[in-house]
Amino acid sequence: MLNNSISRRNVLLGASALTFVSALPAVALTEAGATKLINSVIGQINSVIASGKSEAAMIKEFENIFVRYSDVPTIARYTLGVSARSASDSQLRSFTSAFTGYISRKYGKRFREFMGGRLEVQQTKAVKSFYEVKTLAYLPGSAPFDVTFLVSDKSGKDLFFNMFIEGVNLLLTEREEIGAMLDRRGGNIDSLIADLQKAG
Amino acid sequence: MPTPDLFKRARAGFAPLFAVCALGLLGACASPEPGELVADPYEPMNRKVHGLSKGLDTTLIRPAAVTYGTVVPNPVRMGISNVADNLTLPSEALNGLLQGDGELALNNSFRFVINSTFGLAGLLDPASKMGLTNMDTDFGETLHVWGFREGAYLEVPLMGPSTERDLTGRAIDAVINPVTLVSPLTFTAARRSLNVADRLDTRYRYDETISSTLYESADSYAQAKLLYIQNRRFELGQGADGADDSEIYFDPYEDPYAE
User: Fold this and answer.
1) Is A195 at the interface with chain B, CB within 8 A?
2) How far is A95 from chain B, CA to nearest CA, in Å?
3) pTM (2 decimals)?
4) Which domain holds residue A87?
């Protein structure tokens, strides 16, 4: 029932997007692309939430979604901040891979709070050089809240590179946290990477 | 009916307000340094309060919340929180009025009337199903609408993260709340218990997020501050002082090492 109405919504959204594409090919293509990407992301997230799998399995699924639909290297590099400048290529690579696991564990664990809920795309608009896709999260027993994705094609593919939950910016929040972890380790990136593999 | 009782209550309610004014908080209006999200001149004191609050959460609040969440079934907890929320509506309607926001004032007034009657004293929320969904507000927002700036970040005992403007708002809300003004003190005591239950329910419901922020962050003070300020500015409609759209929507492709 629920899934039917969601897929109908997707079909309608897709159909409207297609109509829009034929009218305004150059601009609308990316806007439709951004909407399509986030529809895929939330379709996958909705099915993970609904699956009722074990926590470990959900974290794994979340990691797959994160790697497939987001620009992990850009996100990781940004959260490392100025330290990314002095890091070697191999340090950056290990950091990115440790960061991927850390983010997936940290946010994957919170999926339990989303049980019985779902996300729905509301609107997409161009901001600067990228697209903002606003979605609403419906949770049983609480008012719907805002989850916004930022999508860019600068990596060569349409991928999301930031996410806001009720105004809380993932990039900014993780940059502060990674910065604090780095400070605690006297700025030693290798020891940060080692600990990040277990954190989250 | 200005009884001595009312005055006593009003004075008790004003006490925190006087304390806030005495500190000259609203007048001080600290501004964030460049590159800083929010001004934090009281950081050493704030960090001490944060440490104490964390200790209180470990020893008392979290265990109490887990007990409450495990012993009391979810629908009952939701009902109790609904009643507590319903009793904040007159105050929120008043703040809507003070902000000159007709939609906010009417929405909260109708929600109160509908949920107090058809919703069995607020136990249920039929107003939401009729399209009158929850629109939170408080005197901190009223101060924002009136042009007061956010001021410095504060961690307040038993209240948690706040700002100079939000703490002042809380103090004024306590005084001007219509429900407190028209109901007997025993009712106010009962309402406080409902609010405690509501807070325990929130602590239980979002345990994963709250506990991981408090206990697993490298710097839980910095995380709590960042989460509060971002979320609060979002609630107030982005563009609260210190943050415009371009800061919030920075482009990591333009300058991945940006400060």
Assistant:
1) no
2) 15
3) 0.81
4) 2-196
